[in-house]
Amino acid sequence: MNLKDKVIYVTGASLGIGYEIASELLKQDAKVVITARNKENLDKAKNTLSKISNNVQAHAFDISDENELKKSMNNVYDHFGKIDGLVNNAPSIHPGMIKDMSLSQWKTNFKANLEGAFLTTNYVLPKMMEQKSGSIVNISSVAGTKGISFISAYAAAKSALINFSKSCAIEAAPNVRVNCVIPGAIETPSFSAAMMTDEMLESTKNTIPLKRIGKPIEVANAVMFLLSDLASYITGADLIIDGGKTADLNAGN
Q: pLDDT band for position 15 (50/70/90)?
């Protein structure tokens, strides 16, 4: 996929989809910087990823902390001299019913999901535009495309990320591309934690036209494609990866 020696910055990469993206990028001979808040999980991820390739760095910090983010990205530019690709994956879900939620709880859902993506993009986009190349992929969620109870703030942040991606694509053109990947139910630690019983898992599978839960590699493959030159004429796009869930009206079932 023409990713050899490309420098790719992946947020929220200690577990789940972000980890899988980093793993697949390393297999394509990219140079990968992974970030996460939890240093213990991040160190474990780096140790495992290092078995694939030594071209991996790990930076532990909160993506919504502007000073720490700038320190991290400055380190990358000092070390590699460039960032070719940015993957804004860092997730944060703080559930609650709208009627019970405080403003502080509401805002917490926007820190990593939206503000973090803004901060990374705000920092790296001018440099990509100056070097006249680059690709940014934002990871949203099908929750950002439909109404959903109990995680309204998360859904609102992910919905905003979809629109942010489109606006960014327009501003970044013609030399930098920005796209948004929108996963549905994917086998990640957070998904597994939400599926409290086997019955709940089977019920969820049955609502999906492909009758199964997606795998992180299936999202990672799409992200790698969008980062690569194979997607050279794709920008401002939304790619839903949900086994057909949001395409199904499901009337009468």
A: very high
Beta-sheet strands, E only, within the chain: 7-10, 31-36, 56-60, 85-88, 135-139, 177-183, 238-241
Average pLDDT rounded to a whole number, residues 218-226: 98
Cα torsion angle, 66, 164, 228, 11, sign: positive
Q: Assess if residue 1 is contained within a domain.
A: no
| Bridge partners for 32 per DSSP | 8, 56
Q: Which domain holds residue 220?
A: 7-240
Q: Are 121 and 169 in contact (CB under 8 A)?
A: no
Residue 2 lies in a domain: no
Strand order of the sheet with strand 85-88? 56-60, 31-36, 7-10, 85-88, 135-139, 177-183, 238-241
Kindly report the average pLDDT of the chain as a whole number: 94
- Provide the number of structural domains found in the chain: 1
Give domain status of residue 138, yes or no.
Answer: yes
Radius of gyration for the alpha carbons in the chain, expressed in angstroms and rounded: 18
Query: Which CATH number fits the domain that encloses residue 16?
Result: 3.40.50.720
Strand partners, 135: 85, 177
In a domain, 35, yes or no: yes
- Model pTM? 0.95
Selection from 181, 107, 171 nearest residue 145 by Cα: 181
pLDDT number for residue 253: 55
In which band, very low, low, confident or very high, does the pLDDT at 195 lie, cut at 50, 70 and 90?
Answer: confident
Instruction: Name residues whose C-beta falls within 8 Å of residue 253's C-beta, 6 or more positions apart in sequence.
Output: none
Report, as residue numbers or ranges, the catalytic residues: 154
DSSP 58-88: EEES-TT-HHHHHHHHHHHHHHHS---EEEE
